[in-house]
# Entry
Amino acid sequence: MSKKIYIIDANVLIDSPKCIEVLRNGEENEIYIPHVVIEEIDRLKSKSIRLKPQIREVIDELEKHINDIHLFGKSYDANQNPDNIILCSIKSDPNLKDHGILVTKDKLFRVKAENAGIQVQDYNSSNPFKSESEKYIGFVDPFTEEYVENCFFYKEGKLFQYKEGEHIIKEYEQKLWKLKPYSKWQNACMMLLADDTIPLVSIQSHAGTGKTILSLAAALNSVLEKKVYSKILIIKPNIEIGNELGHLPGNINEKMDPYFRPIEKLLMKLHKIRQANRIFNQENDKWTLNENIIEMIPINFLRGWDIEDTFVVFDEIQNIERSELRTVLSRMGKNVKCVCTGDVNQLDNKHCDKNSNGLNWIIKKFKGEKEYAHIVLGGKYSRGPIADMVIRKNL
# Structure
């Protein structure tokens, strides 16, 4: 069977950076890329913050396959439509015109190509870009994937955890502060949260799947019931959604109240499930947090701190940069459990993208360490039907 000749458009490379390897299929087919596509990738490299992680991976794949691809055609001309440049470049090469297959996800471009007598197809093996925190979910397939320290896997219908070279069976339902898991992912997450031999845990999930309330339940359980740590520290970046409101009135506690109010509501919810009187002070019918037991602080004020004998909940870490992550984690001293929660689909910090953010950096640097575990919460349980639609339809 003669080799197929695939001509790859920029939108296919960006959507699925591994497309060169997939379409080449070993050495079965030939890959052609128009010069104008390379120039488009180069322009996006500096202009599109949102696409930066995809562009970086595309460039890595182009470099990896530099000897397996053929560049052809005219360079970019500001007076011409890039699609028309590609079509003209294909038609000017008899081999590409007669045998080349243009692969593009642009429906209108496919219509124009077909009208010009060029073979064209969509890229059906689409494998959209995923960040490291989405690729590694904390569960592995024992038959096709390598074990990662503290990962979970199913074998013969039973749940196991890979820990220090051993396969440890985990067939039981975990409970934290009277909370029961809604899914196998929550159950495995609770196991990691309750395991004091794993001091650093990161949790990735969509909105409403329980990552923060599970972390707070584990904190209350470890401090008030097990008494493994003496206090709880909650850290959160003070990043606003949408337009900034400017300076807020009042002292530091009053200024930070809007950022930490959701945490306080979750603590009250846990208090109703099972009383946690020690974390509250009552003054004139007003309830405040007992700072000797539980303290909430914005990331800005952590430099110089020494954190010891503490259960730390580090919330929304997808909105911090690498330098901020290093600053916080380097504060952690003896007898500390740190749980980091986040969702790379809820980025509010304009300086972070899906690849370059605190959650992703943790996985990149610590995956495989015995003191670290990561899990992605799956399943159908969320805040409610509207939140479900948002996730399902990728709003």
Remarks:
- Confidence is low (pLDDT under 50) at residues 241-246.
